[in-house]
Structure to design on (265 residues):
């Protein structure tokens, strides 16, 4: 449990997209532990989202259905949060998806490409846009955090669409941080290497232990394995006053990434 004297988000209201599982779920729990007055989980996984909200406590957490690729749903989620809870201090734009196939450039499937771009790039931009609008309107010096990836700063043998989308996230963060700085709004991103989330496990057809095993060689930091809690701790830092003079940062939680050593069969 977190010491009550060290709650970093006391009284804050936060939205976490993709908060029903993985990194988002871990962050929702951590935000609540650090005193957030309300954590709004926005996701399309309704059953899981409601379960997370109940596990945290419905007085501190609520679930709303939101497809981030739909601007009306994003706008409504942000506006309803402000109407119900009086403010929005933190937006953690975390919802994302993976490629449904290898997606090399020579065999690029545009239907799959569009889905990844709509969620991972367009959806991120919509979340930043609408969170920033209410923060500017209400003169809130808020914090906006996006989930990037090590794929945002390097190429890949596969998953071309995913790599492109994560590069777009980094460009979004760099531009938005410059534009919103005049309003005191900080915009950063956290970029993990491969972490065993339900999404990555499903995509690879592996359990968490297997995913961690194949990701270990890509890290220069030996003897430890990246967990969702590690990423959530990085997000907490960027959401809190501990990073009060930090904006435009790509905070890598990658253990000194050396590049992927995993070769899909």
């Amino acid at each position: 449990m977190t010491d009550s004297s060290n709650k970093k988000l006391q009284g804050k209201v936060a939205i976490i997209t993709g908060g029903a599982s993985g990194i988002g779920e871990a962050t929702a729990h951590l935000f609540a532990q650090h005193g957030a007055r309300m954590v709004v989980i926005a996701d399309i996984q309704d059953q899981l989202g409601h379960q997370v909200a109940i596990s945290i406590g419905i007085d501190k957490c609520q679930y709303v259905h939101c497809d981030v690729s739909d601007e009306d749903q994003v706008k409504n989620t942000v506006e309803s949060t402000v109407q119900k809870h009086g403010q929005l201090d933190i937006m953690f734009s975390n919802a994302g998806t993976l490629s449904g196939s290898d997606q090399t450039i020579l065999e690029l499937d545009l239907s799959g490409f569009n889905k990844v771009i709509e969620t991972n790039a367009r959806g991120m931009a919509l979340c930043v846009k609408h969170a920033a609008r209410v923060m500017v309107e209400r003169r809130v010096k808020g914090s906006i955090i996006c989930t990037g990836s090590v794929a945002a700063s390097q190429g890949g043998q596969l998953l071309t669409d995913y790599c492109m989308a994560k590069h777009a996230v980094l460009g979004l963060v760099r531009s938005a941080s410059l534009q919103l700085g005049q309003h005191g709004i900080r915009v950063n991103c956290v970029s993990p290497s491969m972490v065993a989330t339900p999404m990555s496990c499903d995509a690879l057809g592996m359990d968490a232990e297997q995913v961690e095993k194949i990701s270990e060689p890509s890290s220069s930091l030996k003897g430890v394995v990246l967990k969702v809690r590690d990423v959530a701790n990085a997000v907490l830092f960027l959401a809190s006053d501990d990073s009060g003079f930090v904006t435009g940062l790509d905070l890598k939680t990658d253990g000194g990434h050396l590049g992927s050593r995993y070769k899909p069969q």
Residues 13 and 85 are 7 Å apart (CA to CA). Residues 261-265 have pLDDT under 50 and may be disordered.
